[in-house]
Structure to design on (161 residues):
């Protein structure tokens, strides 16, 4: 039976699958190539975070795989949001991201102050903060700089799990 940390990572993994699916689906219905690129970049961050989590779980002897239900959940969310105007979607998206950031920040206390477990938990929080900053900048009309916090995390190296 997974311990609390492992269970948390399994849940985060599944949520990353949902996010990845959501952003890929939104990119398929993007209004223009710029929006499509933004969704692809957000999906890439979800994919990389998912893979960091998978590696950590694998190092603990826990195998995870993308569940069809999580992929479909992301696709269903995308269908709900595709017809929404861009700024309205960002405004609706922001409170969810704020809640995730608060939840993930608290969860960092599951691991010792230093070490690879804490580094992974911090990355999970930072990736959500980057998504939140993206949404805030879009709401403020700063599209030219909205992806900067996301791109800054792409390719992040974490200590070996």
């Amino acid at each position: 039976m997974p311990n609390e940390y492992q269970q948390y990572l399994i849940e985060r993994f599944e949520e990353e699958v949902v996010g990845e699916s959501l952003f890929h689906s939104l990119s398929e219905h993007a209004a223009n190539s710029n929006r499509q690129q933004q969704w692809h970049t957000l999906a890439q961050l979800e994919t990389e975070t998912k893979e960091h989590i998978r590696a950590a779980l694998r190092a603990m002897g826990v195998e995870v795989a993308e569940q069809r239900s999580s992929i479909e959940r992301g696709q269903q969310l995308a269908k709900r949001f595709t017809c929404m105007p861009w700024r309205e979607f960002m405004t609706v998206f922001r409170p969810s991201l704020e809640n995730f950031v608060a939840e993930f920040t608290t969860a960092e206390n599951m691991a010792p102050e230093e070490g690879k477990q804490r580094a992974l938990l911090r990355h999970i929080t930072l990736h959500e903060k980057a998504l939140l900053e993206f949404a805030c900048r879009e709401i403020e009309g700063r599209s030219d700089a909205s992806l900067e916090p996301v791109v800054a995390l792409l390719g992040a190296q974490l200590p070996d799990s």
Remarks:
- Residues 33-59 form the longest helix (27 residues).
- The chain is about 75% helix and 0% strand.
- The two ends are 20 Å apart (CA to CA).
- The chain has a mean pLDDT of 93.
